[in-house]
């Protein structure tokens, strides 16, 4: 039964309008599919100027002493692998090239430690293909595990790291589970201020808790998703964190600096990434630097362009339809 407002609209007109709407939706979805798929197979370069927060993160990572231990709170899973996964890979590539030891744990998701471990395995395959040293579990990194309460875990770590992680074990080369503090990674670490940097890679509110509880005990750097970027920027602007990567832009920034460094002339003598009054920071030219950022960032641009065109086209057609209705 038709509603009172539909009495003046012929059934044939309504049916035709619904058909046209369905066709438009199908066309839009097909365009979206093409727009987000083709750039993955035919990537094109996107000019990039890293933002100060990303440059500070890169400089902080490069400033970590070679061979030192870094603590990483990895609170992301495969649902944000495009952003968080790209950030994690870039950060680990930098630290692994500096022979840093890694203590990785999660305070947000029980699946996160396994996801982090798989990321390390993937990077080890990459290093093996390049003839580089394989990162060994226990000797080069330990998976500390999952803490079900972020606030309690971070508070305990800030008060007494050894006590907070006293029950945590990982697999030794002998195949036995031993205290993580028996490993070369943590044997000389007694408190948070014994490490040069603590990192958090997250897609959740654990970011705020981490900073609130850890700040002042150790220098902090962070990598968050794009939607978290604006609110996270406050912590960077206030100086509470030493660097920040936000979303795909942050991933592409890190990859760009891994290739070109900061204030470092390339083979042509030109500086690709310039940061006024900042000391030069070398990158890793020729290494596997560009990965998820270079792959997904162009796709994001194409998808956003399509979105803008769809909104503009939709409004133009709606305006024309209203004018015809009034005529």
Describe the structure.
This protein folds into two domains: 52-289, Rossmann fold (3-Layer(aba) Sandwich), CATH 3.40.50; 296-327. It is 49% helix and 12% strand. The protein contains ten helices and eight strands. The protein has helices spanning 11-41, 52-63, 81-97, 112-129, 150-159, 161-164, 206-214, 229-237, 247-260, 292-326; strands at residues 69-75, 101-106, 141-146, 169-171, 177-179, 198-202, 220-224, 244-246. The strands form two sheets. A six-stranded parallel sheet has the order 3-2-1-6-7-8, sandwiched between helices. Strands 4-5 form a two-stranded antiparallel sheet. The model is unreliable at 1-5 (pLDDT under 50).
Give the SSE map:
Blueprint: H1 11-41, H2 52-63, E1 69-75, H3 81-97, E2 101-106, H4 112-129, E3 141-146, H5 150-159, H6 161-164, E4 169-171, E5 177-179, E6 198-202, H7 206-214, E7 220-224, H8 229-237, E8 244-246, H9 247-260, H10 292-326
Parallel strand pairs: 1-2, 1-6, 2-3, 6-7, 7-8
Antiparallel strand pairs: 4-5
